[in-house]
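Predict the assembly for these four chains.
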Amino acid sequence: MEELPRYRQVYETLRRAIADGRYVPGDLLPSEHDLCQEYALARPTVRKALDQLVADGYIQKHQGKGSIVKGAPRGIGILSLTGTTSAVGRPDFFTRIILKPELRPWTEAFGFPINALEQQAGCIYFERLRVLDDAPVFLDITMLPNIGLPNFTAYNLENASLFNFLRTQYQITVTGGTQQLLAIRADKRQREYLHVKSGSPILQLNRKIETSRPGFHIYSQVFCSTRKYGLIGTF
Amino acid sequence: MEELPRYRQVYETLRRAIADGRYVPGDLLPSEHDLCQEYALARPTVRKALDQLVADGYIQKHQGKGSIVKGAPRGIGILSLTGTTSAVGRPDFFTRIILKPELRPWTEAFGFPINALEQQAGCIYFERLRVLDDAPVFLDITMLPNIGLPNFTAYNLENASLFNFLRTQYQITVTGGTQQLLAIRADKRQREYLHVKSGSPILQLNRKIETSRPGFHIYSQVFCSTRKYGLIGTF
DNA sequence: CATACAAATTTGTATATACAGGTTTCCAAC
DNA sequence: GTTGGAAACCTGTATATACAAATTTGTATG
């Protein structure tokens, strides 16, 4: 097991403390000076952790005042997804496989261009339904190139985060991505899976996800009913 | 005129170079060492600029390799909005005032709770239509508390960015925010302004924007037709 | 020619330090 | 008591430095 960088450890510790409610919105985090002493680190290191918390919307900083806790980002965190943060992080969030991973030729990648290497390698395709509180929320179509993923189709992704899976099995981590957002009318298929009326407005999210393995991208298309939950993000 | 921090200047210079196409996707930026020499700065300063470019999706970094240009984020950058970056940044993007700023009592702030100070001060309310390429794209409803904004309603916001306006007139800058995203059916009013058919799916964005002035928030509701343009963001 | 290894290059992490600028606190002067 | 201002505290910016880790390049050896 490789060790996380220290600024990451501080980030995770503080993030969890906020998410668990040990800090209430409005609270002041310990000053950078105090955090340095507590973790025996230099200030730039602590600041890097705090910068990440600001970027993820957990805190807000004010010069001369301190770091004010804003609380854990609420809602279904698919827009944020910053680093390993995000995570829907609710115990009642389940994943159901609709279509098991299978090998296909590429046709297109939700509007994103694919490179020759990906084209040649073929496409691992699968579909999942994300269920929250017994109600279907996301319909998730994933495509990724069949490059250096031995036995991928043999594994069972049920209730396992794809990102965690790729990280533990293949040492592939997410480094960033691009997404396009549209409002569309639900078609028959989406209607059935998401339990909405035909023609209801739903969100369509086309995502190209960059990874630590150069040239290896994950393409994902998400359909989402926002009747019960809106998508939430911070900036 | 106050001076921008140096890391910000480097960021802006490189960002513009990428946006203007002086770097093509796939190109390598000069190494951090070279940039240090070019701008006569220390490496942490240059790195801070590059970190920002990564966060905004302009480049991608690989250890041992360098900074790879990804290109300017395409689409209408309302989700990104990272810092002062974002900016739609297209010359054919215009703003039309539908309803001039007027003083109102608060009723609600698009689902966000408002504090007592804001409640008491009253609400400056106005509506704008954002037009791109002769086609209406955003319908934008803005509410902000009437605190320390002398003569606000007297100014003309036509074709002026609200954020730039607040910064130059009142030294208020945007530090972050939260947004909720929904897919809805266009009602009669939205249909007329956005030129879509009644019942068409459109995006609704409820935003609470934090500023450098503590306790001063901007509340904004945006309706957006994604028929021609999708909203694009990076993470 | 091909392989293996060493060296150079480049980004990642971390420390120590300094000063500027905003905020709060507290005390002295009026 | 109130006001003014100094001091303490806190975050923002910037530098100089060191070593680790990944990648590329060059070189020498078989």
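The beta strands of chain A are 59-62, 66-69, 93-104, 123-132, 135-145, 174-185, 201-211, 217-224, 231-234. Residues 76-90 of chain A have pLDDT under 50 and may be disordered.
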